[in-house]
Amino acid sequence: MFRFIFITLPLLFFNLVRLFLFVLCLFPGFIRFGWYYFIASDRVSLPYDSKSARQRVDVYRACTHNNGRQQQEQLDGSDSNFNMLVEELLNNSPVVIFCTGGAWMIGYKMWGALLARALTAAGMVVVIPDMRNYPLVDIPEMVDDIDLAIGWTKTNIAQYGGDPENIVVVGQSAGGHVACMAIFRNIQRKIAREIDVVATEGLGVFVPDDDERNTNISSRILEDDALNDAWSASDLKGFAAISSPMTLGSVITHSFRRHGLDDAMVERMFGFKKDEYDPCLTLHNFQSVDDKEKFLKDLPPISIYHGTKDKTVPYEASDAFYEELRRAMLDESSISFVSYVGWSHTDPILEAPMDGDHRLHRDLLNDVNKWTTSPCLIWPNDSKVNDRLCPHFMVKLSRFVNPF
Asked: Are strands 43-47 and 335-340 parallel, antiparallel or unpaired?
């Protein structure tokens, strides 16, 4: 109680003041952000499950005409080719599922609108799932939500112009962690079914000579086995993590404490299963060489993006995850790590695009072109997409007061 009153509460209040100043600095950009989300975007909101009003996805349809026209100009300029290309993009656009951040507590699907604005202009369908937050649920149930949202997308996205065979999952901050664990858990459950050994929440260990415990574990997992019936990790064309806590070791623990989150609260947030939902530990703690080979076989290509000035999820967390992937993977060409010098935790999704800096969006476009079999997409030559949303000096000021 002493720590909560004299450390946690003052830190939370201090960060709240900084957050207010941060929003104030970017207010001109947020006005245009809101206009796009509520008025201008070609967006539909749909439920992917019925347990909560938060279990919905925003589906942004691709802006195929502009991208098709640019591709036509780079080909032979004929109207017949242009019409064919637009029709193909309209019905088979690559799909990006973007899981937003929010410290597992304040995440919301609207936070991904700027990314959707850029990627739809490049010819992609963007799906942004909402998920229940803590304290309504703990992180294992958030993973359930993203699991269901990926399954919904695989089953339904063709109705909205997306290609269900060309899906890429992207996550920022806590959304990247939850999406990664949904993919990892999907693979672990597949392995468990194949060898007829089921693990606690799909992430535990088979116990020799303990038939009763293994039977009980099997029953619990099979109760929610429908979560991943609609999709398999091997169906995904790739996964990109942006500023995400992909290791939950001491680096992240210290960051939690600096932001006023004490150890007991973090444990409750993770449902007292923090180690089981640590991506780095999952890669490290294979039970056998055979399990490791099966896991890596289904793992999609992975790109990692992180700003070097991130104070919320230190850059070292992504570096540690990348090194763990390098040790585990036989084919290092399927993983990449891009650092953005000087970027904060929120730069990739807020400050940079508001300042007309679309490096992350262009990098994601390159990932989609590299991983999918869709027609090659081109970055749009459109001032509405590329111009600043906020004056440069106000973006610089926002970086100074940024609490993230």
From this structure: unpaired
Closest CA to 145 of 117, 171, 113: 171
Return the amino acid letter for 33: F
Take residue 72 and report the two structure tokens written for it: 């036509």
Residue 203 CB burial class (10 angstroms; 0-12, 13-18, ≥19): buried
Two tokens, residue 204: 């535990």
Considering only 10-19, 90-99, 125-134, 265-274, which range has the smallest mean pLDDT? 10-19
Residues 6+ apart with CB under 8 A from 58: 43, 44, 45, 109, 110, 112, 116, 127, 128, 130
What's the pTM value of the predicted model, to 2 decimals?
0.88
Q: In terms of DSSP H, where are the helices of 75-173?
A: 79-91, 113-121, 139-156
Where does residue 80 rank: exposed (0-12), middle (13-18), buried (19+ CB within 10 A)?
A: exposed
Q: How many helices (H) and strands (E) does the chain have?
A: 18, 8
Contact 292, 230 (CB under 8 A): no
pLDDT of residue 81: 55
What is the DSSP secondary structure assignment for residue 111, as one 8-state letter? G
